[in-house]
């Protein structure tokens, strides 16, 4: 066994021990918050239901496996929009920039925001609405770093600031992701990926919105007056998860290949998942992809996952000059849901 495989197994062992310490038990399922960290706004990785742990590259890797950030050739700028659960009015936007700062080192930054659409303000006296609308502000800012060793092993770490706010109530926390990718084979056919995501500080909502007026419980001298009370909200954990993925590329000539994909996701606060998919690349111009992801043990669940398991996507990309250093690509993905009419992702990226 090569030395590189020993590195992978050591890294995996550290991940498993860390995750076991953080994960808890099945009784805690459904108790995590900040669920937007599990939503993927990027189109390429969404086309395979975010199971590309082993091969994801570029800025999208900062959502799936930050180690893939090290595969950026020079620099990348990307934007993506997701129309979440078509018909719900929800959306998600992501903007990112990545740049190779040294021969083997890449630094990236992404900004992601969640749009809840128009939420009318209602009161007890005006149940039909006051005419105003709530405007929740849910966003996160991530900074990632990846290092590639001998073009075989990429390791990465990411720090994410998470903000949630609505009117006079807000919460803020930090999360950390870490990942590794290993490639082998004559044409780097075999790929292995491991990532641990959303490990961080508990979050808690606070602010003036949780204060209320109430009578003094012990009136002095028989005088009754109101006091301002502050309700303490319960803290919540981030939705941590561990992903293990493998893939293998079957080449047909020099510029065509079929990639087979398999992935296992261990969720600390929801059911574990298995995923499988394929990608077909044609002359590095068009990429077709599809996948299916299944929630283990969900057969008897009264409430099912909104995603029914199927995902598909397409990428079209072209070179802007003869040197092939400057490329532009458009990506689209669709994921089936029940209810609603699916989730659509559309992205644009520029590599230089």
Structure report:
The chain is mainly β and 352 residues long. It has one domain: Porin (Beta Barrel). It is built from 3 helices and 18 strands. The protein has helices spanning 3-23, 43-46, 61-64; strands spanning 75-84, 90-100, 105-115, 119-120, 133-134, 137-149, 153-166, 169-184, 190-200, 211-215, 226-230, 241-251, 256-267, 273-282, 286-295, 307-319, 327-337, 343-351. The strands form 3 sheets. It has a 14-stranded antiparallel barrel with strand order 1-2-3-6-7-8-9-12-13-14-15-16-17-18. A hairpin with a 4-residue loop joins strand 2 and strand 3. The longest helix has 21 residues, at 3-23. It is elongated, with a radius of gyration of 23 Å. The two termini are 37 Å apart.
**Annotation field: number of helices:** 3
Q: Give the amount of beta strand, in percent.
A: over 45%
Helix-residue proportion? under 10%
Mean pLDDT: 89
Q: What name does the CATH topology carry? A: Porin
- The CATH architecture comes to Beta Barrel
Quaternary structure of the protein: single chain
- Unreliable stretches, pLDDT < 50, 5 or more residues? 20-25
Total number of strands: 18
Please give the largest β-sheet.
14 strands, antiparallel, barrel
- Helix/strand/pairing category: mainly beta
* Rg computed from alpha carbons, rounded to a whole number of angstroms: 23 Å
- Give the CA-based shape: elongated
C-alpha end-to-end distance: 37 Å
Helix/strand layout:
Elements: H1 3-23, H2 43-46, H3 61-64, E1 75-84, E2 90-100, E3 105-115, E4 119-120, E5 133-134, E6 137-149, E7 153-166, E8 169-184, E9 190-200, E10 211-215, E11 226-230, E12 241-251, E13 256-267, E14 273-282, E15 286-295, E16 307-319, E17 327-337, E18 343-351
Antiparallel strand pairs: 1-2, 1-18, 2-3, 3-6, 4-5, 6-7, 7-8, 8-9, 9-12, 10-11, 12-13, 13-14, 14-15, 15-16, 16-17, 17-18
């Amino acid at each position: 066994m090569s030395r590189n495989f020993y590195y992978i197994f050591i890294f995996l062992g550290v991940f498993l021990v860390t995750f076991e310490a953080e994960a808890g038990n099945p009784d805690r399922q459904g108790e995590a918050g900040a669920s937007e960290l599990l939503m993927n706004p990027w189109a390429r990785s969404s086309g395979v239901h975010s199971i590309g742990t082993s091969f994801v590259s570029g800025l999208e890797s900062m959502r799936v496996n930050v180690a893939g950030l090290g595969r950026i050739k020079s620099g990348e700028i990307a934007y993506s929009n997701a129309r979440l659960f078509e018909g719900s009015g929800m959306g998600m936007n992501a903007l990112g920039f990545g740049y190779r700062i040294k021969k083997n080192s890449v630094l990236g930054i992404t900004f992601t925001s969640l749009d809840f659409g128009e939420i009318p303000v209602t009161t007890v006296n005006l149940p039909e609405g006051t005419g105003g609308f709530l405007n929740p502000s849910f966003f996160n800012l991530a900074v990632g770093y990846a290092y590639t060793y001998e073009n075989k092993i990429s390791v990465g770490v990411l720090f994410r600031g998470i903000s949630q706010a609505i009117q006079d109530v807000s919460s803020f926390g930090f999360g950390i992701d870490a990942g590794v990718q290993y490639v082998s084979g004559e044409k780097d056919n075999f790929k292995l990926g491991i990532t641990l995501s959303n490990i961080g500080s508990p979050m808690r909502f606070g602010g003036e919105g949780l204060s209320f007026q109430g009578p003094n419980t012990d009136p002095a001298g028989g005088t009754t007056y109101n006091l301002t009370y502050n309700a303490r909200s319960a803290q919540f954990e981030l939705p941590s998860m561990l992903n293990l993925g493998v893939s293998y590329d079957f080449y047909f000539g020099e510029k065509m290949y079929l990639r087979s994909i398999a992935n296992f996701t261990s969720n600390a606060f929801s059911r574990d998942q298995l995923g499988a998919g394929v990608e077909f690349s044609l002359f590095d111009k068009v990429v077709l992809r599809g996948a299916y992801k299944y929630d283990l043990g969900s057969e008897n669940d009264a409430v099912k996952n909104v995603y029914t398991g199927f995902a598909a996507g397409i990428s079209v990309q072209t070179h802007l000059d003869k040197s092939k250093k400057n490329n532009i690509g458009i990506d689209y993905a669709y994921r089936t849901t029940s209810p609603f009419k699916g989730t659509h992702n559309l992205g644009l990226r520029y590599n230089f």
